[in-house]
What we know:
- By secondary structure, the chain is of the alpha+beta class.
- It contains ten helices and eleven strands.
- The site of adenosine-5'-triphosphate has 21 residues, from α1 and α2.
- Adenosine-5'-triphosphate (ATP) binds at residues 68-69, 73-76, 98, 104-112, 114, 145, 186, 265-266.
Amino acid sequence: MRITITAPAKINLFLDVTGRRPDGYHTIAGVMQTISLCDTVTLEITEPVDHASAGAESITLTCTSPDIPADGRNLAWRAAEAFFAATGRGCKSLSIHIEKHIPAAAGMAGGSTNAAAVLTGLNHLYGNPLTTEALCEVGLKLGADVPFCIKGGAQITEGVGEIMTSITPMPPCELVVACGGEGVSTPAAYKALDALCGNFDPAAYTPHAEELSTLLSALRQGDLTALCESTFNLFETVVLPERPVARGIKETLLASGAITAMMSGSGPSVFGVFPKGDGSAQKALAALTERGIPAWGCEPVENLGS
Ligand code: ATP
């Protein structure tokens, strides 16, 4: 049995830290949007079984990018093991093939979306033993962004990423995503934020709640200009000063006509939002490509079914 699934990237239209839990995890308030830049994940299982002996006798993983680990460190592989453990299902062999287009360690959920695709794909192949909510619970143990990648579309994300509220997606627009230079380690970026924001003690840091509600009302009204005026990413304050390439990308996007340009997640990828059909997104793509910076033209995706 074989299935091929699209695994789309995400951007953060808003990303703020609201505090730290006693276990050290950061709580966030954010808005994530699925975009059309995607990997594809193909799963093939032989001799599936549905009794509780569970697991795959063998798992193999191939990936078109040599930079991604092709073994048990890969989040897609770990997602398969987590699915088998949660359901008691198994098979003789599982092969996973990832066609990589999403830049890695870039703040675009490259690993998380592959994991989500494996969970969704295996669930489908085994006749949907898990509900979407149960899949999200399994996914959360693999990474904070996995539940979002399972649901997709546009979501307010709170808690450590597990509390999601579906909202109106971005109005029609063009996006350019670019990523140059080394990847950013998300734990290192959080550490820098802790130092800057007094460990997110309520006395030291006030979350940007009003700005978030302005952005949400812009989304509800489908007002692209107002939306672009209220995008926010706290990680920019600690990542951009260290990243001249990302700063340069942001400047190029804005100079080419982006309504706004902002880092996604903990970076260093940067996205620009452009009006549809006026050629400015293509101008930005040409300017970035000329400078040797990998860049992709894409658009928001309303929901994973579309
Ligand atoms: P997020 O936006 O969720 O914080 P990210 O885009 O910053 O994620 P990833 O692309 O998920 O980061 O990559 C982070 C690390 O995970 C990389 O160092 C990479 O080697 C590892 N990794 C494991 N599995 C995968 C996968 N399937 N795809 C991409 N990276 C993976």
